[in-house]
Amino acid sequence: MPGRVRRAVAVAVPALVMSGFGLWGLDRGGIWRDEAVTFQVARRTVPQIWRLLHGVDAVHGLYYLLMHAVLAVHPGEVVLRLPSVCAAAVTAGLVAALGARLARPRVGLWAGLLYAVSPMAGHYAQEGRSYALVAAGATGATLLFVRAARGGPWWAYGVLLGLTCWLHEFAVLLLLAHGVSLAIARAGVRVWRGWGCAAVAVGVLLVPMALVSRAQSAQLAWVRRPTVETAQGVLRTFLGPTDGVYWTCLGLAVVGMVGLVGRRGELTCAGVALPLVVVPPVVLMLVSQVSPLYVDRYVLYALSGAPVLVAAGADRVAGVVGRLRPGGRRVPTRSALRNDCPHDDGKSYALPLLQSLLTLAGVLAVLLAVVQQLPLLRDDRVPVHRPDDLAAVSRAAARVLRPGEPVLFLPVQARNAALAYPGAFRGVRDVGLGVSAAESGTLYGQEADAGTLRRRVARLDRVWVVADRNLLAGRWSPNSQAEQAKLALLTQEFVPVEESVSGAVTVRLYVRRSAVSRSPASPPAPPGPALPSPASPRPARR
To answer: Model pTM?
Structure first.
């Protein structure tokens, strides 16, 4: 095939494969708490979203506005995740284009396919959050960076990276990775000047976001300092979670680092891919030793470098194999065949055929990796493998709640289920709510003060509570006075008599102690189906 056709195929095939994996099991039948935030915020009006961003989640502001337009078409679970599926497919194609530009179409094809079958890429392709879009923007910016360093315009690189940083500010670490690539290449003054101007423009564009998000840093209070085990986990996640895939990819990545430094001013494949996969996670981990900020999804875009590095190593191995005949003799090069040199034995089609077979062998190796990782890919499409399942909570609530019944959410984040699935809570009385989420410019609503809450609860003999089970068990304590007041009222004046859900989130009926003493005892209802335990006891997020 002509070179242009080979490059087009190398880009299109991984994009199609990623689309298939992204659409597979996209409708899980439920959303978890972070997706629920996207769902309920994006359905607010633009002025309400703008008001929210002044107090919380400014880092996701551009994404919420984008999803506002998307969900206006149809507010549903599948539509919520479709932008991420599309972004992941684009990223797989861009990874392939990056490998083809830095090496050859075969490297691009393998790299794009490795990205498409990565469990980490597949996970965030099916999540209604911004991280897949950030990965697409960062990979596209890296491709434009390579083009600019080879004589193309720098403005396109700066514009795309600036927009990507507004989708998530930690994408700015990509600038450091590209700077390291230029240092490895020993780039000339003209290239450094062009990149420096683009970097300054991106930094200036990001200043307002940085100032606002710094004031909202309390949202990351749940993040812990990364450890050596964290770094090892990232490496395994990037290269492959199963042992066979991991060790094979690690070995090929090491081989791919050969030729890291090329001629002066030359961006090599390893010189671009290695800093991309290493610099953002390492820098964020180091910063997090002082101020914890590191979460693996914040540097999802760094995953794009790993398959390129692995594919480059595989290409080197294939090159060695392709230059050997059975018996150890070297296959003649293309130039030898073309010039009818003494090595030519008349088999002028042997080399192209052998190269095609090697390319196909690489594709089959990726298919073998899919087979090894298939249980992980399949399990990831089940709601129980997400931190929580708000659809299960809403179904449990719908079975026991009746219009007019009082409900208390503890902590306030538990109201996320009602905001995401309002039908299950239609007609109930939210006794802890002061001002609704949309009107107060908050994620979950503004709670009533302790005095108002006491007056409302004083007239009640029973109240349903949707709560974090770890909080009710005393495994952690709320910081806000409103949450402490709700918890004190329950423990002092009420007793639980019925539970519909056990697990991460519980729906319990609490009855006033005096009412229990006046009525004959009755055994509590059996608990409902269990929900998965959350990764962190606090439902904080960003």
So the answer is: 0.88
